[in-house]
DNA sequence: ACCTTAATAT
DNA sequence: GATATTAAGG
């Protein structure tokens, strides 16, 4: 009965990947790479995978096929042109989003690419999983049949409280705007099951269940932080998050959960503390903040305690490690939010600068489940150095970058402008693991094994419109220089089934969004965000794949995971 | 009009 | 289990 409905929405993913509607142009001076990449893409189902070995060719193709090309995936080092030049020229010629891939994980390089308009920056090697998610960057304005269309054209729906967004000088059009309630107002009941059709007409959509990925959650948190206690309310948060398709209800729901967890956290911490204050590697600031907060949720929103403050019961040694690991990338160590705050909130003063969010989604009987995080970190760092890491890293990278998103339209007050300078700490490090870690695996993958993987469709979201990079860019205008602009990588996640155990072996996906966060944004001092991500998931439950050995499942970081549906056969 | 909570549905 | 939705009360 009612199941049908639920399923229907989700069924989209399983039944209609429509990746075939995404045409990609792969550019790489190396024939072998080109061949491998295009083959991977092809195997994944992308349509019309074109290739070019030189930037000029790429530009030429892009220009000629502006309407058919949805995405350009290019090596950063092409023989005839550097990536910046390519980005610029490409921009002049087409709106097609450009994703850069490079061996260079140098932050400057990455940021530079993003600043120049790339929508994403992959540090090689790329894996199938990363490619699988490529479509998210595609803009497809399909006409005839199709599909993905993230761009959301017309619905530029009003800007609720927007104000400026319009002027943008350089880029193309921008159309973000929260059109949240636009959808929400839509039919309350009509939802039968018709979503099977992916025809683009927007009407008739049922609100798909949104998966709060880390990225989304990060945005959420950032918004909350920026807003400050007083205004961390759904509507505002929503505006600040600026995620197309995200509705206020979503935020409210998440906020509710978030607060709840904060509360619990606090309680847990307090208890722990009461018993025996043992650890505080840190200065006390966090502790204090922690205290401030007790049960009351609402007012404390912005001063989260540091996760560090409370230790996960799980492995203690981890801590130690963590302190070691702090080898953030150059720019990396900075503390992130503080600056931001200063900009305008009296309330928040810098005092509580960082704030990390202690929230974990999993609690076991009252115990916070922080565990993974630390380990994680740890592990990954290691990996950073060169180690084993299982898989999923690509996604992680993906996610991270994405998360970086620049928040563009804000209503003005607080800004993120500052963000660009120091703020990018997060950003910066991400790709690292992306890169070292999996090499082996990737290599293997590259060898390709088309057969196995991907027969099943990937996750395609039907409805969630993807914001284009452009839209936001402009807003920044001047600031733009500071910040990388790039689009929110994945707005809403739609569930993705694909059961390929092979590829995703261990995904421990889960969403600990909250937990993760703490790790990522955690203390200003060391933040080593590297974490792998879980590949798309499937309905399978993942309970701790490794259990024993590496308990670190990646729960924290999944990017896309299957959500709901279990299409029960 | 919008928020928060709690309860309940999916 | 995570999210959505609803209802009730501010």
Folded structure, characterized:
This is Response regulatory domain-containing protein. It comes from Prunus persica (Peach). Residues 204-263 form the HTH myb-type domain. GO terms for molecular function: DNA binding. The chain has 569 residues and is mainly alpha-helical. Among the domains are: 19-140, Rossmann fold (3-Layer(aba) Sandwich); 214-271, Arc Repressor Mutant, subunit A. Helices cover 39% and strands 6% of the residues. The chain has 22 helices and 9 strands. The strands form 3 sheets. The protein has a 5-stranded parallel β-sheet, sandwiched between helices. Helix 8 (214-231) packs parallel to helix 15 (393-403) and helix 12 packs across helix 14. The longest helix has 28 residues, at 248-275. The protein starts with a helix and ends in a 48-residue tail after the last helix. 60% of the residues are buried. Residues 1-17, 140-205, 280-512 and 515-569 have low confidence and may be disordered. The protein binds a DNA duplex (10 and 10 nucleotides) through helix 1 and helix 10.
């Amino acid at each position: 009965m009612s199941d049908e409905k639920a399923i229907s929405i989700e069924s989209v993913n399983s039944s209609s990947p429509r990746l075939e509607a995404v045409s990609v142009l792969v550019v790489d001076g190396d024939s072998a790479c080109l061949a491998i990449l295009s083959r991977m893409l092809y195997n994944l189902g992308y349509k019309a995978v074109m290739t070019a070995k030189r930037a000029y060719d790429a530009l030429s193709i892009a220009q000629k096929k502006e309407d058919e090309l949805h995405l350009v995936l290019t090596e950063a080092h092409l023989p005839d042109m550097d990536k910046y030049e390519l980005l610029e020229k490409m921009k002049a010629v087409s709106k097609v989003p450009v994703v850069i891939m490079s061996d260079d994980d140098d932050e400057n390089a990455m940021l530079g690419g993003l600043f120049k308009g790339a929508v994403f920056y992959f540090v090689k090697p790329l894996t199938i999983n990363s490619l699988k998610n490529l479509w998210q960057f595609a803009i497809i304005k399909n006409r005839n049949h199709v599909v993905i269309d993230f761009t959301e054209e017309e619905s530029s729906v009003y800007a609720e409280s927007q104000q400026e967004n319009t002027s943008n000088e350089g880029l193309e059009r921008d159309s973000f705007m929260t059109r949240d309630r636009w959808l929400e107002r839509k039919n309350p009941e009509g939802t039968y099951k018709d979503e099977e059709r992916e025809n683009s007409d927007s009407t008739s959509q049922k609100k798909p269940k949104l998966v709060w990925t880390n990225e989304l959650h990060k945005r959420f948190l950032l918004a909350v932080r920026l807003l400050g206690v007083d205004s961390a309310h759904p509507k505002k948060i929503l505006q600040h998050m600026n995620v197309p398709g995200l509705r206020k209800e979503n935020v409210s729901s998440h906020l509710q959960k978030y607060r709840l967890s904060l509360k619990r956290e606090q309680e847990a911490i307090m208890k722990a503390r009461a018993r025996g204050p043992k650890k505080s590697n840190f200065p006390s600031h966090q502790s204090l903040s922690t205290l401030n907060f007790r049960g009351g949720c609402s007012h404390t929103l912005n001063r989260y305690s540091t996760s560090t403050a409370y230790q996960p019961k799980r492995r203690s040694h981890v801590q130690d490690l963590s302190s070691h690991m702090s080898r953030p990338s150059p720019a990396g160590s900075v503390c992130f939010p503080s600056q931001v705050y200063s900009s305008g909130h009296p309330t928040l003063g810098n005092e509580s600068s960082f704030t990390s969010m202690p929230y974990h989604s999993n609690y076991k009987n009252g115990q916070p489940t922080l565990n993974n995080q630390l380990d994680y970190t740890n592990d990954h760092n290691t990996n950073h150095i060169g180690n084993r890491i299982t898989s999923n890293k690509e996604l992680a990278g993906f996610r991270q970058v994405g998360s970086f998103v620049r928040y563009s339209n804000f209503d003005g007050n607080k800004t993120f402008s500052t963000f660009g300078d120091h703020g990018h700490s997060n950003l910066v490090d991400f790709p690292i693991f992306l890169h070292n870690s999996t090499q082996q695996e990737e290599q293997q993958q590259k060898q390709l094994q088309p057969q196995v993987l991907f027969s099943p469709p990937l996750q395609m979201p039907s409805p969630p419109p993807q914001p284009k990079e452009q839209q936001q860019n402009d807003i920044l205008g001047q600031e733009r220089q500071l910040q990388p602009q790039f689009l929110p990588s994945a707005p809403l996640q739609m569930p993705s089934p694909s059961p390929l155990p092979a590829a995703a072996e261990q995904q421990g996906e889960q969403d600990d969004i909250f937990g993760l966060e703490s790790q990522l944004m955690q203390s200003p001092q060391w933040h080593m965000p590297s974490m792998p991500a879980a590949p798309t998931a499937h309905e399978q439950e993942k309970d701790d794949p490794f259990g024993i050995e590496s308990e670190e499942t990646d729960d924290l970081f999944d990017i896309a995971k299957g959500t709901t549906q279990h299409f029960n056969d």
